[in-house]
User: Fold this.
Amino acid sequence: MTEINGTLLAQEIKKEIAEEVLKITNEGKRPPHLAAVLIGEDPASQVYVRNKVKSCEEVGFQSTLIRRDAAISEEELLGIVDDLNRNSEIDGFIVQLPLPRHINEDRVTLAIKPEKDVDGFHPVNFGRMAQGLPCYLPATPCGIIEMMKRYNISAEGKEVVVIGRSNIVGTPIALLLSQKSNPGNGTVTICHSRTQNLREHTLKADILIAAIGRANFVTADMVKEGVVVIDVGINRVDAPETKRGYKLAGDVDFAGVAPKASFITPVPGGVGPMTVVSLLLNTLKANRKEIYP
Ligand code: NAD
Assistant:
């Protein structure tokens, strides 16, 4: 069994990005610039955005954090998006989700110019991805693809089972791994909350991707020997013995499943760090105008 080290991989990729940034600045150009919009006080969102800003600093990107109170109106937020769309000093930006209930997330996502949508959530980027055209891939699927490439995990001809059908993880990773690409060419099944006999599907999986949001949901009896397990879940579970009172757990019961797996990602330290790196890769592409020349 190989435990995939997402933290180490992310560090390696950050080094590569930092070298690219040096090349850009040595040519007298400004470094890539990512902006993040954070609304309200959601603790998980604050951690994610802090990590993103910190990662920008590590690789030599410029970053701008725009924080507003949860009471901000949709119009005000759309105004911020409009300003960022027009600001030629900013290559790409993200609006951290979830947004407060009174704000329509779809309207905000649609307002972001596809050229600056480094989260890859805009339907134009999603559509381009679905057709195999150049696009900003959504960060988590992009991180999984990069991880598979670097660990030489091929999906070609394999049974791939994805649990979860969200627009940001389950559906895009299922599409990508079924496409004629590396590491695609898999035979992909998407399972979700209405799937009957989930275990029958998961037992067939050569590659199992869990993006559910339920701690330790996938257990050893649901997987076959030699399976590759990619655990996307980030769940808080009570841990009174820790200072914070909770710890992070994936969607997979790591202790039970790992002995049967050929490769497995831990939580934390698996897909999470790769997601942040993907955002940096997209911002670098935006700076170079690779996707939208
Ligand atoms: P989501 O809530 O949008 O989707 C969850 C999916 O799980 C749904 O499609 C649903 O049909 C499916 N599901 C729910 N219960 C099920 C059941 N009993 N059986 C089968 N399927 C079931 O979630 P999401 O945004 O895709 O995120 C999933 C998890 O991944 C969460 O824990 C989230 O925190 C985590 N996440 C991690 C990263 C990262 O960087 N590692 C990024 C995004 C999301």
The domain at 28-136 is CATH 3.40.50.10860 (Rossmann fold). Residues 162 and 258 are 18 Å apart (CA to CA).
